[in-house]
């Protein structure tokens, strides 16, 4: 997803901007560009592909500029489509994240008025609209252009004539970094952390004008003050810390993430406040990708523990289903807090009068402004595109929610808390034995198709395992309820299609073993994920990934960590770009 950076201060702007853009690489991009304002003109540099390792770029000595990493939506990745985009007279340059839905009619009108366009992008209309309104004051020109735009945007504009940046946001993330005598504007915090940990989270409708002497934020034309937050993440948090990939580092952070998330909500007992759910008739989870799988685990656990009916919907499909009732609790799960589909689903829920809860990992993210209630996971920044530690943190929050919504006795809650507190140690034991998982991962690297199966709690785990495998290793991997295989997918089985079976020792156990036997009878190699006390399963499969024994409801945690490592080592053996898989973005801010 696109990344935005703007800088005004005393350092060479091109170097600051490029180093900040590199910190946004995790969002995914296919081209990039920088514009600086110097001596009454704009110097622009654009390129397709990665920024690369060059430490210093020579656009000029200016100390003001903007930059962008583009993830193509309108128009292919190319130099001409890369941002920054300029007006006809090359006096104004802008970078943009989001989508301008009405760009076509705007473009047609502007062309009739004499504007010349060079790119296929929706973004270019913004530069021309600002140009049209520019009478020597960039802020006024931006503010005059905004009402014409329909869609979502985070924009930063610069002009060749004035030493200022003007930035604004609507439904796309944007933060302001406040340094000493220098200011940064960016899509996300890691971009500025090298320079400052003081950050303002801009809100929808904010327009910020930044000069050397400070910044002013207006919303609807009225000056507003926004809190400067101190970000506790260190720059090291956002870097690899000696691991070959962010993904591996982040998997290894899981024990600490569980501890940190528990620390926030558990003492002797569970302190999480769930009064937002009082009198709710149903819980509806809306989420995408991995967060959707966390929600599916939530369905099993919350229904089982509390008896409250739970619906789980892909956020992108939520619009096409009946609106929630006003007594519903709609829960958006999104690690980034910026996933456009999830935000839109939650807006719909609010319009229907439902209560809205967000579970997110990012303080001040867009979802926190939409939701009535927010529960934070405490996973720290996740840079690898594949969600790993944040998924586990989501599960921990879901367990706490389920327990608080349930009728458990005091001693049952205490037992659950004890089990939760043991989870970090259980996960450490998986990480200590990752060599065994690496061997199996390397074995899988030669295949092109895989199936993942599970029943009950094992089913969302299978879905998530398959998603991890396909997104980073590019092996075609499908997750199925184990009982569904014989209704069609059996046709794909054979020695060229390994099957990963999530085997949980609960009421699904015997029947899952039967399903494994059916698969083996069709020659597929079978890898079972099972706990260390399971003495039966190894008789029927080719490999077993052993995980420490935990209460059955926590198997999604231990099994998922094992499956994340399995996908990692398969992808590594295949030589894939693990942290930035092709075509994917960390934060999907378009619907
Ligand atoms: C997970 O590995 C994916 N990269 C992706 O499915 C992700 O979970 C999805 O885009 C939702 O993101 P969110 O949690 O930030 O909303």
Radius of gyration (CA) equals 25 Å
Task: Label the CATH architecture of the largest domain.
Answer: 4-Layer Sandwich
**Number of H- or I-type helical stretches:** 15
CATH class of the largest domain: Alpha Beta
- The CATH topology name of the largest domain reads Glutamine Phosphoribosylpyrophosphate, subunit 1, domain 1
CATH H level of the largest domain: which superfamily? Aminohydrolase, N-terminal nucleophile (Ntn) domain
Through-space gap between termini: 12 Å
Quickly give the structural class: alpha/beta
Regions with little confidence, pLDDT below 50 for 5+ residues: none
Morphology call: globular
Q: Give the strand order of the largest sheet, numbering strands 1, 2, ... along the chain.
A: 3-2-4-1-10-9-11-15
How many strands, which pairing sense, and closed or not: the largest β-sheet?
8 strands, antiparallel
Q: Roughly how much helix do the residues carry, as a percent range?
A: 25-40%
Beta strand count = 25
Number of domains: 3
Strand fraction equals: 15-25%
Bound molecules: 2-deoxy-2-amino glucitol-6-phosphate
């Amino acid at each position: 997803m696109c990344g935005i950076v703007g800088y005004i201060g005393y350092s060479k702007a091109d170097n600051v901007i490029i180093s900040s853009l590199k910190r946004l690489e995790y969002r995914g991009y296919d081209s990039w560009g920088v514009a600086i304002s110097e001596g009454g003109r704009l110097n622009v540099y654009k390129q397709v592909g990665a920024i690369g390792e060059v430490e210093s770029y020579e656009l000029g000595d200016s100390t003001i500029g903007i930059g962008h990493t583009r993830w193509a939506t309108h128009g292919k990745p190319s130099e001409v489509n890369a941002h920054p985009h300029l007006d006809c007279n090359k006096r104004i340059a802008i970078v943009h994240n989001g989508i301008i839905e009405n760009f076509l009619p705007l473009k047609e009108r502007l062309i009739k008025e004499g504007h010349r366009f060079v790119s296929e992008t929706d973004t270019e209309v913004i530069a021309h609209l600002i140009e049209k309104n520019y009478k020597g004051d960039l802020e006024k020109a931006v503010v005059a252009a905004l009402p014409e735009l329909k869609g979502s945007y985070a924009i930063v504009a610069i002009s060749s004539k004035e030493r200022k940046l003007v930035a604004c946001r609507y439904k796309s993330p944007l933060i302001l970094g406040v340094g000493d005598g220098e200011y940064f504007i960016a899509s996300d915090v890691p971009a500025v952390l090298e320079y400052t940990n003081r950050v303002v989270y801009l809100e929808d409708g904010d327009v910020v004008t930044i000069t050397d002497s400070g910044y002013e934020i207006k919303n609807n034309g009225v000056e507003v003050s926004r809190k400067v937050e101190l970000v506790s993440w260190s720059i090291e948090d956002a870097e690899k810390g000696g691991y070959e990939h962010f993904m591996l580092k982040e998997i290894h952070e899981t024990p600490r993430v569980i501890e940190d998330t528990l620390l926030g909500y558990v003492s002797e007992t569970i302190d999480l406040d769930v009064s937002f759910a009082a009198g709710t008739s149903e819980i509806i989870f809306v989420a995408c990708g991995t967060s959707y799988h966390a929600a599916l685990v939530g369905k099993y656990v919350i229904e089982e523990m509390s008896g409250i009916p739970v619906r789980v919907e892909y956020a992108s499909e939520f619009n096409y289903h009946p609106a929630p009732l006003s007594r519903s609790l709609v829960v958006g799960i999104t690690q980034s807090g910026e996933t456009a589909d999830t935000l839109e689903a939650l807006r719909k829920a609010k319009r229907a009068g439902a209560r809205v809860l967000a579970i997110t990992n990012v303080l001040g993210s867009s979802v926190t402004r939409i939701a009535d209630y927010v529960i934070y996971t405490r996973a720290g920044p996740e840079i690898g595109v594949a969600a790993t530690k944040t998924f586990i943190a989501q599960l921990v929050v879901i367990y706490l929610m389920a327990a608080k919504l349930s009728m458990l006795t005091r001693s049952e809650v205490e037992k659950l808390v004890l089990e939760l507190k043991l989870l970090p140690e259980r996960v450490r034991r998986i990480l200590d034995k990752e060599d065994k998982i690496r061997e199996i991962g390397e074995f899988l690297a030669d295949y092109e198709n895989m199936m993942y199966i599970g029943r009950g709690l094992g089913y969302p785990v299978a879905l998530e395992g398959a998603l991890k495998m396909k997104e980073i290793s590019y092996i075609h991997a499908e997750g199925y309820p184990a009982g569904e295989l014989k209704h069609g997918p059996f046709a794909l089985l054979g020695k060229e299609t390994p099957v990963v079976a999530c085997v949980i020792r609960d009421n699904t156990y015997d029947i899952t073993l039967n399903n494994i036997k059916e698969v083996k009878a069709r020659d597929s190699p079978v890898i079972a994920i099972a706990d260390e006390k399971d003495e039966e399963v190894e008789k029927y499969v080719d490999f077993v990934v052993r995980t420490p024994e935990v209460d059955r409801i926590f198997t999604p945690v231990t099994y998922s960590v094992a499956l994340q490592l399995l996908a990692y080592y398969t992808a590594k053996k295949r030589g894939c770009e693990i942290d930035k898989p092709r075509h994917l973005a960390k934060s999907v801010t378009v619907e």
